# Entry
Amino acid sequence: MVLAWFCREFLAPRRLVFNVLFYGAQFAWCALGWYLQQTDKKLYALNGLSWSVWISRGAGLTLAFNAGLLLIPMLRNLITLLRPKLVRLFPADENIWFHRQVAYSMAFWSVVHTTAHYVNFFNIELTQVRTESALDIHYTQAGGITGHFMLLIMVLMYTTAHHKIRNQCFEAFWYTHHLAFFFFIGLYTHATGCFVRDSVNPDYISSFPFYSTEHCLGYESWRFIIWPGIAYFAERMYREYRARRETRLSKVLVHPSGAMELRIVKPSFKYTAGQWLFIQVPEISGFQWHPFTITSAPEDPYVSVHIRQVGDWTHALGERLGCGPSVVAAMTKAAMKGVDKDEAQDCGTRGDFVELEPSSLARPLPHVRIDGPYGAPAEDVFDNEVAVLIGAGIGVTPFASILKHIWYRQKKGNLGSLRRVEFFWVCRDAPSFGWFQSLLQEVEAAQFDPNFLRINIYLTQKIDENMLWNIAVNDAGAEYDPLTLLRTRTMFGRPDWKSIYRRIREAIEIGQYLPGSTGQLKTKVGTYFCGPGALAKAIKEATLQHTSNNVEFTFAKV
# Structure
């Protein structure tokens, strides 16, 4: 298992190239820092400490390099702007992964840098290169104070960024990550002043910058790494300005299993299918912004997001909107009953929702703010001949927007390169089908070519006896599936992804899958997945295994 992980993360062709360049640059900067320190004649006395001071300088310069890189993948607006033009040249969709790699490197070099400095402080007191105690250097001088301050912030940020803590308490991750502002202030001032000097005692003066530049040398890397920080700060200011433009929560729909659909009107908000946004509800928290996938299509007169009530913030939102546990429990209970489509006229369907009328609420709908949109791999669906869309549970949300957009483009006869769509939705429980049942019914009914869109629904949870009897009674000879009320039948259990991709490849190669195509032409099949990591791994392995000379399977996690 460990060997497979190592091969996947470090030895896969693209990752291998990245690792050689990225980690090679790390050691190159470390060697440069070592050389600059060792050959600096003004620091001859400090160089008497030998290897420990050379390592601390090399590791410090490498940390500065990493700090300059750390904020670049967080320039979301810039990445969204460049993504359509340069997506083939750099992995724009892996910006968070790259951010983490830089953070891991910073953790390593921080340990090296700090350990070397502790040795330095001990040796300085021992050799009396400076007439100061190690405690004075640690806790009374700028370098020691800012260094320990940054270490404390790193401990808080790294621990709360762990996926288990982030999933259970997003607020902890959100607030501690904003300590980065103070981290970078400490970083930019860490080696300034008279901490690095060629004299035994500090050489302070009474005028700005309050130290003599003749003897107080400092390190100047901050002059270069401050620019990504300035760019990030400017982007955050722009995002704040943009988020304050006129926004109105026009409607709230409550679906089975507690999924809330918020429909928001913001005339200035322009997006493409498959993108996502940040949303803030100031009444709940004036500081927290939460990311959600856009589920409406660009052609809709509103922007919608589907929010499942699973955490503190989402539960608080549900209570504020008047769709707390009692409403959800009643809808879920009703949704667990399978009904025949003909009976739906009288008793409702699993796709029924509750629309919260503002006039019936004790308080008016809350004010919301949205920031975005931001790019995602699902934007590229129309660049493929075949698109395989796979959603697990609430992970279906990106494809709601895409399926709607496909529907609108079908009406206009403008589907680009897209010739066929395979849609898979893997759900744990039956009520979840109600989230997008009406949308799927509309899209399915609008298909003139039955081969263009194929809907595959999988139910993985064991069903109870009552639902089993309902299915048995209603399914016999029925035109529609009793669970989803679609023409497509629901399948039970987990999909066999390797078998599914093998059948797609074989059908393409013998010319049965795409009308008019031949096996000699290479067909591009793009897979877009949203859901848990374990399932993503299985699907990606299936795409790699079944890629051939005639069929190229690609995989992207959205």
About this structure: The mean pLDDT is 78.
